[in-house]
Amino acid sequence: MFLHILLLLVGFILLIKGADFFVDGSSSVAKLIGIPGFVIGLTVVAMGTSAPEAAVSITAGLQGSNEIAISNVIGSNIFNLLVVAGTCAVIKPYKIEKELLHRDFPVNLVVTVVLFLMALTSMTFTRLNGILMLICFVAYIAFILYVAFKNRETQTDDDVKTMKPFWSVVAIVGGLAAVIFGGDMVVDNATEIAKALGWSETFIGLTIIAIGTSLPELVTSIVAARKGESGLALGNVIGSNIFNIMLILGLSSSITPIPVDTNGLINIGILIGVTAFVFVACLIKKGMGRVVGAASVLGYCGYTAYLLLTTVQA
Length: 314
Fold this sequence. Notes:
Radius of gyration: 19 Å
Distance between the termini: 17 Å
Number of helices: 12
Number of strands: 4
Structural class: mainly alpha
Largest sheet: 2 strands, antiparallel
Helix content: over 70%
């Protein structure tokens, strides 16, 4: 048991540091070839912070651990909305950009509802569902890039660390390798711990793995909040949540269909409720204040208690 816990922690470290190197290397290459900084943030950084979830869910799907594959994404999205965005609001209340509030947040809500309807239709995320999500994901990214380039303004990219081309490639390849290897370690050892303790894979995926793979979003957003840039927190959360559903679940279910049980449907329903709550709260105030932030964090504590009562046993 101790060895599995140790290897689980090592896997998380590889996931987080691997994603960090991947983002640094990709951002450096993007700057070297002249891609604007705002496009880097919308694409490379969002994909980089979602890399741990991708590694875990795709690996779990390939290994037949379907409960982990779906619960990791759902758990991560709930954690992102309630804890990441909520904690940053507690540190410093923030306003939300109009474009994010009226375009990307509604997209996140709609995508989550569509996910629920897909699961409800056949109790399985089929390969066709996965392919459709990937097509929608490509269209969404293409639209974001089109709007970004169309409305871009002259700006500096001094906040982006530039490395030499060789080291940029090394960082990308090495970071990606660490993410993949770390994801494999997390899935293998979390599954063994769950079996040893009699816990369900659903509980492990919704809590331990979801929190562990969401650490890049949490760390990035808290650092931004401490620097007085709390508004970046929700943008990071919304972008990552859309990536998690459309790209990660799309890839996972395209590789192998993922069955969804009643608990899975309930948790997707909870995610819809959480997304709607945060969206409406932010829409009313044009941002997130300390009261809503604190309520969100307390809400996650309540959700965890619910999981302990309903899904902890295999």
